[in-house]
Amino acid sequence: MELSRTVGRLIGVRQHEVDPGGGGASRVPGPVDVVVAGGGIAGMSAAVVLAERGVRVTVLEAAPTLGGRLGAWPDTLADGTGQIVEHGFHAFFRQYYNWRSVLRRIDPALGFLKPVPGYPIDSAQWPVEEFGRLPKAPPMNLLALLVRSPSLRLRDLRGMDRDAALPLLTYDREHTYAALDGTTAEELLDSLRLPDRARAMLFEVFSHSFFNHEREMSAAELVAQFHFYLLGNPEGLAFDAPDEDHATSIWGPLARYVEERGGRIVTGARAIMLSHDDDTGWRVATADGTVHRGGHVVLAVDPPALATLVKASPQLDELAPELVGRMPTFGTPGPPYAVARYWLGGDVAAGRAVFSGVSRQATLDSVTLYHRLENEPRRWAAATGGSVVELHAYACEPGVPAGKLAERMRTELVTLWPEVADLPVVELRARVEAQAPAFAPRSHPVRPGVRTDAAGLYLAGDGIDTEFPSALMERSAATGILAANHILRAEGAAAEPVRSIRPRGLLAPRRRS
């Protein structure tokens, strides 16, 4: 085992079991019907666990394809070449224990996930910052960052407000949210008195990765995610990605897995209203007029869709008044995000990283070279001599058309990678959407958890609160499994284990028993 992980284990930086699972029969004792609204990571994670235990699960997905913000769909270029276009690059970090557990159902060795070398942050002002070569586990990764980083030298620590920085090392769910949820991430960063370069290259890039501006994001959320990705996790900042598109590598196999166990998946089926009857249970109506019935329902849709669905379900005013009351705040998404995939008539420089974060550009936050990542773009590039480059803005200006944001991002990339200016655009696919959860200051007290105040009604998704550290794809998978576990335990079946990282910060005070 790597030395940093050995040291980390001695101080509790290791995988933790937050729900041991088990506790019942291997399958539900009798017929159980469950409706899952949403066929992304959260909904399909719930469906996988439920179907394995003999539950008759129906997944309703509004889009024509599964996946949510990890979705993928077929497209055809002007030259007739078929391509799969995705919703945007996602890093499969190695502390995503629950999401990886779901994926092992379709590939026990996770052979379709390949390491993405390096994790550079590019800037027009400063040299590249490389996160990919740090030791895996704290505290050695933090010490190495201080020793190696060109953005933060040991001498800079003298001017830093060490008291203001202490919350980064003392994460504790209860205390962190009580102390910092009313503060913005920007105010926390201001208080650190970091050199501008360190702030831009080490912290601002990180906060944008959660699809929120630091001026509109809770400082408690920033601390929690800093703990999850850097200071409490034994796996490091290294990550993997599929070598085939998400439809081929993930959603097709997961759909087959659920269906082979008696589940049903219906795409193009948008849930528009919930109702409940004491005799027949829950009813979920879809836009085509179909009604799906179940003893339990899991709502695994994005925050705006959840708020719309709850508002359109008047019976919930009585059955779930607490849930209804949380929706005006929770249903407001974070800022828009934009994805632009360019097929270019030539390649970028050979030394460019497969994935690069970007600092201090007005729009551009990351660059992914798909022709060096996935097989289908790789084949297109080999046949044409071109490249497939995806640009992503995590939190961009509202009201700007996707095409204009795409050109802004490409112009900003030229300032970082000058060779891009000479590469003609063969094709462009650009989208702008606003579906990611907001993590605004003072929003944590009204953030819903998996269990609602209506019996048999559960929530899942990356905006849903968890008692343990989690984020992004991992939070989606974890909340989906938790929702399934509530149902399985209610029906007398064994639950699925749930795992996470060290629950508290390296310097968090010991709790009194």
Q: Biggest sheet: strands side by side, in what order? A: 9-8-17-18-19-16-20
Most strands sheet? 7 strands, mixed
| pLDDT < 50 runs, ≥5 residues | none
Q: Supply the helix-strand structural class.
A: alpha+beta
Gross geometry: globular
Mean pLDDT: 94
Distance between the termini: 33 Å
Number of strands: 22
For the structure shown, list the relevant keywords.
alpha+beta; 20% strand; 5-stranded parallel β-sheet; globular; 16 helices; 33% helix; 513 residues; 7-stranded mixed β-sheet
Detail the topology: elements first, then pairings:
Blueprint: H1 3-10, E1 16-19, E2 33-37, H2 41-52, E3 56-61, E4 72-76, E5 82-86, E6 92-93, H3 97-103, E7 113-115, E8 120-123, E9 129-130, H4 140-148, H5 162-169, H6 173-180, H7 185-192, H8 196-208, H9 219-231, E10 239-242, H10 246-260, E11 264-267, E12 271-277, E13 281-286, E14 291-294, E15 296-299, H11 303-311, H12 316-319, H13 321-330, E16 337-344, E17 355-359, E18 366-369, H14 375-384, E19 387-393, H15 402-416, E20 425-433, E21 457-459, H16 472-490, E22 498-500
Parallel strand pairs: 2-3, 2-15, 3-11, 8-17, 15-21
Antiparallel strand pairs: 1-22, 4-5, 6-10, 7-10, 8-9, 12-13, 13-14, 16-19, 16-20, 17-18, 18-19
Q: How would you sum up this structure in a few lines?
A:
This protein is α+β, with helices and mostly antiparallel strands and 513 residues long. It is 33% helix and 20% strand.
